[in-house]
Amino acid sequence: MRPNNRAVAALRPFNVSYGFQPHAEGSVLMSMGQTQVLCAVSVEDHVPPFLLGRGQGWITAEYGMLPRATKSRGRREAVSGISGRSHEIQRLIGRSLRMMVDLRLLGEHTLRVDCDVLNADGGTRCAAITGAALALRAALVRMVEREQLPALPELLPVAAVSAGIVDGQQVLDLEYVEDSAAEVDGNFVMAQDGRWVEIQATAEGRPFPPEAFAALATLAAAGLRDLFSALW
C-alpha cells in the first residue's frame, strides 16, 4: 500500500493559503501533503539589460530550501553557494511561468518569484511551480489595482505534478519515501489547455519502455486536470 493508503492515481491532500507574505505583490503557501513551499512575487520597475528598450517584461524565479526542511539539516545556500540542483529547479520554474503570459503585455517590469521550501516530502519543484503560478496571478491583479498595468493580461495557467514507477507500479504525486525508491521518476508541467510545458523523466535502475512513459504522462495529465479544476 502507498503511504496513508492512497490510491495509485490520487493526489495528496493539497491546500493554498493566499497572502501569506502581505508585503509581497502576490504570495501563496502551497501545500501538497507534507510538502510546503512559500511562493512570493516581487514587482520591479525595470527589466534585465538584454530587454532594455524592447517594451516588454520579464518573469524569473529563485528557489531554495530551508536548512530543516528535510530530516537532517542541509547547509544554507547563502553560506555554501547555490547548488546545481537549486539552479536547475529555479530555471525550470522560470521557464514554466513565462509560458503563462505574453511578456509584451507586462510593460518594462520584472516579476521576481521566490520559492522557498519550508518542508520537503517529495515533489518540491512541482509544488513550487503550482504555487508560483497562483502567486503570479495575484501579483498581476495587484499591478492592475496599482495602475501599473492597464488591464489583467490573458493568462494560461500552468501546474506541475510528479509521477513515477515504484515497485513496478505507476503512481501519482510521489512522497519522499516513494521518490527515494522509485525505478522511474518524472516531473510533468502542463498548461490548463492540456499542452505540455516541460517533462523531466529519469530511469533510476534500468531503461523503461515508451509505453510506460506514455502511461505516466496520462496519469500525470489526469492529476493535473484535478489540480486545475480545484485551483483555477
Automatic annotation (TrEMBL):
Keyword Hydrolase: no
Residues noted as binding phosphate in the record, renumbered to the chain: R85, G123, T124, R125
GO BP annotations listed: rRNA 3'-end processing; rRNA catabolic process; tRNA processing
Pfam families, per the entry: RNase_PH, RNase_PH_C
Catalysis: reaction(s): tRNA(n+1) + phosphate = tRNA(n) + a ribonucleoside 5'-diphosphate
Domain of life of the organism encoding this protein: Bacteria
Keyword Nucleotidyltransferase: yes
Position of the signal peptide: none
Entry's EC annotation: 2.7.7.56
One GO MF term: tRNA binding
Annotated InterPro entries: ExoRNase_PH_dom1, ExoRNase_PH_dom2, ExoRNase_PH_dom2_sf, PNPase/RNase_PH_dom_sf, Ribosomal_Su5_D2-typ_SF, RNase_PH, RNase_PH_bac-type, RNase_PH_CS
Annotated keywords: Nucleotidyltransferase, RNA-binding, rRNA processing, Transferase, tRNA processing, tRNA-binding
Exoribonuclease phosphorolytic domain boundaries: 11-139, 157-221
Complex and partners: Homohexameric ring arranged as a trimer of dimers.
Function: Phosphorolytic 3'-5' exoribonuclease that plays an important role in tRNA 3'-end maturation. Removes nucleotide residues following the 3'-CCA terminus of tRNAs; can also add nucleotides to the ends of RNA molecules by using nucleoside diphosphates as substrates, but this may not be physiologically important. Probably plays a role in initiation of 16S rRNA degradation (leading to ribosome degradation) during starvation.
HAMAP family assigned to the protein according to its UniProt record, in alphabetical order: RNase_PH (MF_00564)
Protein family membership: Belongs to the RNase PH family.
Entry protein name: Ribonuclease PH
Designated gene of the protein: rph
